[in-house]
Amino acid sequence: MKRLVKVGVVCLLSAIVGSANAEPVLLGSGGILDTLYGLDNIVEIYNDELWTNTGEGLAAARGRWAGYVQDFGYLPGISGEEFEHLFSVSTIGYLDGAPSEVLLPEETGVVFRFGDDPSGAPLWSSQAGDNSDGADHMRTFLITGGESAGSYAICWEDLPNLGDMDYQDLVVEVNGVAPVPEPATVALLGLSTVVLLRRRGAYGRAKYRTYPAVNISSSESGKTLQAAVAKYKAGCGGIK
Ligand SMILES: [Ca+2]
Ligand SMILES: [Ca+2]
After folding, report:
1. Which of 112, 118, 214, 228 minimizes the number of CB atoms within 10 Å of its CB?
2. Is residue 57 located within the same domain as residue 126?
3. CA of 102 to the centre of ligand 2 (A)
């Protein structure tokens, strides 16, 4: 009987130590998003592969629970993998908005993708089709209330084939940006006018190239975003 009690005490202590070391989950009561924003103040956004810069955007780290150091940034345009680094996060736990970095529209382009480059895993794009495993490594939540209302929390899974699927390896709060939901919106955003896309060239990093106007009418809203963007690319003589 005494032995049974001892075993029970050891198990209880192990459980307490284990729970103290456990990582917080992303969702649910007491989880990361509840702690940061309150569950009543977030709505998940599922169309989050492409983004547009609505002005001077800002990206700020809010947490990291991962073995890998996370390099966060973006990929200008709608395809290609020219990753632009914004900041690295190596601290484990909640972060009060640091490090942070501005997102300039002349650098991201009108439409861009977010990117996360973990130290020991491939670079992941917010656009699943860019990724080596074809998986969606970023979940997005619109913050609807509180101090961060209007911002988005973007939450990354850093392991190939989505690993443990906890999506809390890096949590970044972004504002001044918005997801691109459909082709009609692409037209409204100005893809029918002139787009500046950053290109590396003889003068180093900051070289810009102007592409000609291509019309994408709102009547094409029934088509997929990719089809509308393909038309835009073709009209530009092919953007890589
Ligand atoms: Ca996603
Ligand atoms: Ca994970």
Report:
1. 214
2. yes
3. 26
164 domain residue, yes or no: yes
Overall domain count for the chain? 2
Give counts: helices (H), strands (E), the chain. Answer: 5, 13
Closest listed ligand to the CA of 168: 2
Cα(140) to ligand 2 centroid in Å equals 15
- Which CATH number does the domain housing residue 95 bear? 2.60.120
- Ligand 2 centroid–CA 118 distance in Å is 11
* pTM flag (> 0.70): yes
Closest ligand by atom to 155 CA? 1
User: Which residues have their alpha-adjacent CB atom under 5 A from ion ligand 2?
Assistant: 157, 163-164, 166, 169
In terms of residue numbers, what domain contains 187?
183-235
The answer on 214 and 144 residing in a single domain is no
Q: Encode pLDDT of 26-83 as tens digits.
A: 999 999 999 999 999 999 999 999 999 988 899 999 999 999 999 999 999 999 879 9
Q: Peptide bond preceding 183: is omega within 30 degrees of 0, i.e. cis?
A: no
C-alpha distances (whole Å) from 180 to each of 51, 54, 225 are 5, 11, 9
Query: 203-228: per-residue pLDDT in tens?
Result: 223 222 233 333 333 333 333 344 44
Is the Cβ–Cβ distance between 122 and 131 less than 8 Å?
A: yes
